[in-house]
Write a structure and sequence with these properties.
It is built from five helices and eight strands; from the N terminus they run βαβαβββαβββαα. The chain is α/β, with parallel strands linked by helices.
Length: 177
Amino acid sequence: MSEKSTKVKYVSWSAVEEAISHIAKQIKESHVPEVVIAIVKGGLIPARVLVDALAIEEIGFIEVKFYKGIGVAGDKPSVKSIALPQIRGKSVLVVDDVVDSGRTMQLAIDIVSAHVPRSLRSAVLYVKPWSTYIPDYYHAITDEWIIFPWEVCESIKEGVLLLDSEFVKASERCELD
């Protein structure tokens, strides 16, 4: 993939911190959940930072596979694994990094709903304008392909040409074949 074919947005660690702080403030103004469920892989780091910011003790995850590569979605999202704490009767927040089509988040919401939480909300760092699912909390809307600092090596393997100096430096840690 070249940057000419797809607009790319590099999101630095400091921008991630800013986005999560923004979301944490939104959550604190409405209702802090008792449990956070991360959608893995992308939502794992944002969820972990959010539980720290909100002083939440319980975290679980749902691993969902949807994309075959950068910008290439599969037919439908599929669940690879689930590790949920007790959520029946509790306030739950499902967290991911980006909501693109909305199908992954909707699948995770459906799974969590089956466990009968008292309340269920969702949060992401970025939302695509064409998404069919709009989360309760988010930092920004963008039509760009997002590259986070935790996926530099994966992006390079998918053929992304890194042009941001911070990400080029981070790519030194990658073992590429």
